[in-house]
Specification:
Blueprint: H1 2-34, H2 39-53, H3 77-80, H4 87-92, H5 108-121
Helix pairs in contact: 2-5
Bound molecules: heme C.
Length: 129
């Protein structure tokens, strides 16, 4: 009798322990996604970047005008190119070979934000990512 009781307690403890272990493992697998930048934050960062860096020449919204006569509205970029093609040049610091346009070498994380925002404002939404 006594040993059956003990066995039962043992089984319960074992079950409890293994369920805790499963839980711990599950948390470990899910943890990295918690550090990914949420979409809203990427969007906000991208918008802040174009407001700070591009607005002096380019139209940056869906209905504004470019200040610089030669600078295309950023919402029309996907009519001229696939936005993904900008990823490498943006990181390496050569966006366009134009004397008026500054060169930047952005961090991959900032390129993500920039491309995310740019794709959201494209007038040609067939290229939307
Ligand atoms: C000082 C002015 C200036 C600023 C600031 C500027 N640009 Fe430009 N950008 C231009 C001009 C002018 C052109 C047109 C170049 C040409 O067609 O020869 C251009 C062209 C481009 C093109 C290429 C379009 C094409 O069809 O090849 C991209 C992409 C671009 N800019 C992105 C940006 C982004 C993103 C920013 C901000 C991070 C930015 N630019 C900031 C002046 C500027």
């Amino acid at each position: 009798m006594k040993s059956t009781e003990n066995n039962l307690i043992c089984t319960c403890l074992l079950l409890l322990a293994s369920s805790l272990l499963v839980q711990a493992c599950a948390e470990q697998v899910e943890a990295p996604t918690a550090y990914e930048t949420p979409v809203a934050e990427l969007m906000g960062q991208g918008e802040a970047m174009v407001e700070n860096l591009c607005v002096s020449c380019h139209a940056i919204k869906s209905n504004d005008l470019s200040v610089h006569p030669d600078a295309p509205a950023l919402r029309d970029l996907s009519k001229r190119m696939n936005l993904e093609e900008l990823r490498t040049p943006m990181m390496e610091g050569m966006i366009v070979d134009h004397p008026d346009m500054p060169e930047w070498a952005f961090e991959p994380h900032h390129v993500d934000a920039l491309l995310y925002y740019l794709s959201s404002i494209q007038s040609d939404q067939s290229d939307r990512q």
